[in-house]
Amino acid sequence: MGFKTGNEERDNELPLVRQQIKAAIERDLMDDDNITSVFYGGSIGTGNTDLYSDIDLRMIVKEEAFEQYRLNKKEKAKNWGTVMFYEDFSWAAHSVAHYKGFIKVDSFYYTEKDIQPSVWYKELEIVYDRENFMRRIQRESKDLSYKPTLEEFYLWKNRFLAYAHEVYRGVKREEFFHATSSLESLRFLLTTGWFMEEGKQPNNPGYWAKLGGNRSRLQNWQLTFLEESMGSRDPQSIMSSLELLVPEFIRTHKELCKKFGIDENCAHINEILGMVL
Questions:
Q1: What does the pLDDT look like over 143-162, one tens digit per residue?
Q2: How many Cα atoms within 13 Å fall on the side-chain side of residue 22?
Q3: Distance (Å) of CA 226 to CA 38, 160, 163, 241
């Protein structure tokens, strides 16, 4: 990478630190009678790690012990290294621990009833599976493919239209942070539309990881388009970016309407977008 800081020496050690934390995780969990499966998703699961990859840890806990483990998730994470800080909600079944070595662990706790075959389980690194439950789930997931639902399509369409209106409102109010934030949401929504068009699972809302850089899931023309539509925090630039994004939305919307066999209702879409362009 071209950008230099004073942390390159530390960063070069991150794969080793990540492996050390993984080893601590596996020693801890595989010796725990209440844990029946331990596996990794994310870039570890796909075998596509880089220096800065986190540890996407998944565990299956016996149902009778689950609540205890959920409540003690922060304490559990301390078994794997020196935690600097956490991200989570107390009521959630997951936690994110940031370690002293600049590695973070996203840990998710499940019971068997929470797990069903899914496109998300096609690529995993399973390190412990006492009853072969996750291996069966992975086998059953292999032939699954992502297909957007009509509900997802309408949500995508309506959110794009809504954010287009918010860009305009932000510019007119001179709330340029809001306008550029809304513009960024439009650009992200286009990536969602592209993936739906291609039959690929979109990123979770607002999650830009693996949409740029060497691991990008996007095609070159899509990356170029996103770069050209970035603009700056200037009224004219913001509106020019909006004018660039809208035709691509219309094209993608048309293709998705064909997939679903529904009327794209051009006049209605043009009327809504014409309120801000």
A1: 999 999 999 999 999 999 99
A2: 20
A3: 38, 15, 16, 10
Q: What is the pLDDT of residues 40-92, one digit of tens each?
A: 999 999 998 999 999 999 999 999 999 999 999 999 999 999 999 999 999 99
| pLDDT for 2 | 59
Task: Find all residues with CB under 8 Å of 271, minimum gap 6, and list them.
Answer: none
DSSP 253: H
CATH number of 8-141: 3.30.460.10
Mean pLDDT of the chain: 95
DSSP state letters, 1-69: -----S-HHHHHTHHHHHHHHHHHHHHHHHT-TTEEEEEE-HHHHHT---TT--EEEEEEE-GGGHHHH
pLDDT band at residue 3 under the 50/70/90 scheme: low
The residues, ordered by sequence, that sit 6+ positions from 205 with a Cβ below 8 Å of its Cβ are 188
CATH number of the domain at 150-274, please?
1.20.120
* pLDDT of 199 strictly over 80: yes
User: How do residues 221-249 score in pLDDT, each as one tens digit?
Assistant: 999 999 999 888 899 999 999 999 999 99
Domain coordinates of the chain in residue numbers?
Answer: 8-141, 150-274
Long-range CB contacts (within 8 A, 24+) of 48-55: 48/215, 49/15, 49/18, 50/214, 50/215, 51/11, 51/12, 51/14, 51/15, 52/11, 52/14, 53/18, 54/103, 54/104, 54/105, 54/106, 55/18, 55/21, 55/22, 55/25, 55/103, 55/104, 55/105, 55/106
List the alpha helices (DSSP H) in the chain. 8-12, 14-30, 42-46, 66-71, 73-77, 133-141, 150-172, 176-198, 220-228, 235-260, 266-274
